[in-house]
Amino acid sequence: xxxxxxxTGGAGLVGSSVTRRLLDTGSEVFCADDxxxxxxxxxxEFETESGFEFERWDVSRHGWHAPLRGRSFDxxxxxxxxxxxxxxxxxxxxxxxxTFTTTFECLLAARDLRIxxxxxxxxxxxxxxxxxxxxxxxxPGLHPVSIYGAGKLASEAFISAFVENYGINAWVYxxxxxxxxxxxxxxxxxxxxxxxQNPAELQVLGDGRQTKTYxxxxxxxxxxxxxxxxxxxxxxxxxxxxxxxxxTEGTTSVRQIAEETVAVVTGGKARIRYGTDPIGWVGDVPxxxxxxxxxGELGWRPTLDSTAAVFQAIRDFYEWSK
Length: 322
Ligand SMILES: NC(=O)c1ccc[n+]([C@@H]2O[C@H](COP(=O)([O-])OP(=O)(O)OC[C@H]3O[C@@H](n4cnc5c(N)ncnc54)[C@H](O)[C@@H]3O)[C@@H](O)[C@H]2O)c1
What we know:
Blueprint: E1 4-8, H1 13-24, E2 28-32, E3 52-55, E4 75-78, H2 87-90, H3 92-112, E5 117-123, H4 147-166, E6 169-175, E7 177-179, H5 187-197, E8 201-204, E9 211-212, E10 214-216, H6 217-230, H7 237-240, E11 241-246, E12 252-253, H8 254-266, E13 271-274, H9 293-296, H10 306-320
Parallel strand pairs: 1-2, 1-4, 2-3, 4-5, 5-6, 6-11, 7-10, 8-13
Antiparallel strand pairs: 9-12
Helix pairs in contact: 1-6, 3-4, 5-8, 8-10
The chain binds nicotinamide-adenine-dinucleotide.
């Protein structure tokens, strides 16, 4: 590709796979991450590569990009956020700062450093609790129920306005649940952590009947870069602020995830205890399934379906985190 890329959240699950893919295709990556969720272990394989730079920066801080004045970037990929959705209920200020303000500060960075293209990691959480399934991008009346979803939707609104005001072109990706080896949060991360503490029993938040759409992180990254390449900006606002759902077509239930995790970690020995609530936490959306027709029309297909992505991630994260 040969791009100069400014990446936030590069020490996280998605950001580290973005980095690997960009470096492998001849791009240079300057990564900023404050390591609140990501770890240096996720980026250590890149440290010896000449096209990679890393700074431990909090990108919600006003003016964080000042040391980069005078440098030139083709693309800003904004993956930093509080990706742990359940945290927002008890600490909404974390999503205000790490999910929303990071986006605002990254938009200022794109404007001031004259970075023409802005790729944003958004979420199916913007669609609220009961959208039509499968949910298309043009779903009307977006009313998120998690603080995190609100932070992402507010971010999308600011990106849209920056596109109009400052000539930035944006690609907004509403991900399903992204899974892979370098997990920092989420259901697989939690189940494996719990089973390591108590191999006899797994307590599940909610009744386990939630069904959600999952996508392998490598497929997710290939989808982001595919849409960026195959759908260049046009003249109209809608062609310069482009929104894509990005996931697999199918879904996987929490019960399937619990049973497979127990099989991998304990050889099927742990007893699974389900709760009684249909949701796992305040702001949880019990059913997600995205229409992926729009990105499919660009010729992108995931290599793993939802359940295959989950089962592979259980094995990969279990081995990686030993
Ligand atoms: N993983 C998913 O299921 C999923 C689904 C939908 C959307 N997303 C979004 O995709 C992006 C990447 O997700 P992920 O799964 O890789 O999450 P992640 O937690 O693994 O990575 C996010 C990274 O951002 C960093 N970060 C957080 N606040 C920061 C700040 N103020 N300054 C600098 N760095 C900061 C964290 O340390 C972490 O390394 C996030 O924006 C997330 O909200 C993820």
